[in-house]
Amino acid sequence: MSETSRSQAHVHRESPDGAPAPVGTRTAGVRRTAAGVSELVQVALPLISAWLPTQRWYAGKGRAITGLHPVVGTPLQVGDPALLHLLLRVEHGGGAAAQGDIYQLLLGIRSQPPTGIGPQAVLGRLAGGTYDGATLYDAVHDPELTGRLLEHLATGDRFGSLSFRRTPGSGLPSNIPGRASTAEQSNSSVIYDTSFILKLFRRISPGTNPDLELSLALSRAGSTRIPRVAAWFESRLERSEPATLGLLQRYLPDAEDGWELALDQVARLKGDPSPGNFAIEAHRLGRATAEVHRVLARTMPTARLDRERIELLAGAMADRLDSAVAAVPGLLRYRSALRAAFQQLTADHLDGLQVQRIHGDLHLGQAMRTPQGWVLLDFEGEPAKPLAERRLPQPALRDVAAMLRSFDYAAAHLLAGAPGPDPELAHLASAWAARNRAAYCAGYTAGGGDDPTASPELMRALEIDKAVYEVVYEARHRPSWLPIPLAAINRLALTV
Length: 496
Ligand SMILES: Nc1ncnc2c1ncn2[C@@H]1O[C@H](COP(=O)(O)OP(=O)(O)O)[C@@H](O)[C@H]1O
Ligand SMILES: O=P(O)(O)O[C@H]1O[C@H](CO)[C@@H](O[C@H]2O[C@H](CO)[C@@H](O)[C@H](O)[C@H]2O)[C@H](O)[C@H]1O
Hints:
binds the ligand O=P(O)(O)O[C@H]1O[C@H](CO)[C@@H](O[C@H]2O[C@H](CO)[C@@H](O)[C@H](O)[C@H]2O)[C@H](O)[C@H]1O; 2 domains; 19 strands; binds adenosine-5'-diphosphate; Kinase-like_dom_sf; globular; 6-stranded antiparallel beta sheet; nucleotide-binding; kinase; ATP-binding; Aminoglycoside 3'-phosphotransferase, Chain: A, domain 2; 21% strand
């Protein structure tokens, strides 16, 4: 726990937007000694190692844990309840081949478990140390303790290497208890009232998370296509650059999830001759995507790809396909057709193709319809890719291709739920997908984006690349959904 000793008693104030402020000191109730934190962590580790693999966001499922190493432990509150912020390296494998992931844990400790907390959130009873007999639990589910976190964000506190930073004019209240979000997600979120939502990133990499980086760039440019960034917090990990740990944004209380809206429409296709016109929404969503791309191209680095870099782009797609074939052998029979589609990129006079920062994992579930129009969420990129790769500029049409896949998913999801083959339903579903895909592309072009229909080879390669990612994602997380991207691969392999 190398950093722990510096995390006590000294609370540094940050001025708005993270500009350095004169360092002050106050105790803020954080008085536990470094030895106290070490002792607490040691007592907690057996409970943590049993609980971690049961969490949805834990990436090491199925691999034995060979080591648990605290990286930074910061007591944010002592007493009853106590709050411990912990960054923990989890190792798999032994010797030189050991691999590790760092996770963020927010641990609550109370003599009695908080009322209403579910069993999934309880790690167990501590045996030994200062808190002997107290309950250790996931503090994301404790409104009082998550309220404390909002206070730190509002005041811009600093504890050792843990810095809370707020954006100017964010008007952050304190004294609001937080409630854990129940949304299906890769991280954990806490909602404050109807005003703010704090995402706590669970798997932590050194460096700025693209979700913060891009949301901040869009917020600063005044874009209304994302929920405005109000604050964030970060920490140094060992000797590397600060890692983003949490992102506080405006909450959209009246928003409807694009995926739910699409499923609702698709479900009413049969038997309802006029089940609403989602294509109008798809068109608007295309415009919103183009708007976001335009701001990102204006405010963040862009580049043009020469022939050599187009070959690298195609080569990376082929490499991802090969790894996917190794993981899901059912892909093998499509390999040569799909490789030929990637190869086509180098023959397609794409030299000079512009690349820029993009969303990176766009789908209907990341789009929220609000009374003011579509808003995009979660600019983290594909969670399976290393952070450095997710931050690379890409063709903007990669996001468009990803969203096209999502229309296909919504239609295929309906068919997957049907009791048996239903040719009429299959026809209706595929017409729904085609109509909405076309409307989305038209909206994207009308919004100032490059016309996707003018680059069919590029779009085909990008769609294949996404579907290959989805095959691996579904095989790993939702095997019963695997037929959805596999059907798309089958179709895309046949299209020339
Ligand atoms: N600003 C917001 N306003 C309302 N709901 C939100 C907001 N941000 C996220 N959500 C809800 O939380 C869900 C998960 O958010 P997301 O950023 O995708 O998390 P993760 O990266 O953990 O998957 C979203 O699908 C949405 O339902
Ligand atoms: O939302 P996340 O950032 O966690 O993204 C991952 O999970 C998505 C599913 O929740 C997954 O998206 C795939 O399934 C969607 C339907 O559930 C579909 O609309 C998308 O088109 C499809 O890619 C996403 O790929 C994954 O990274």
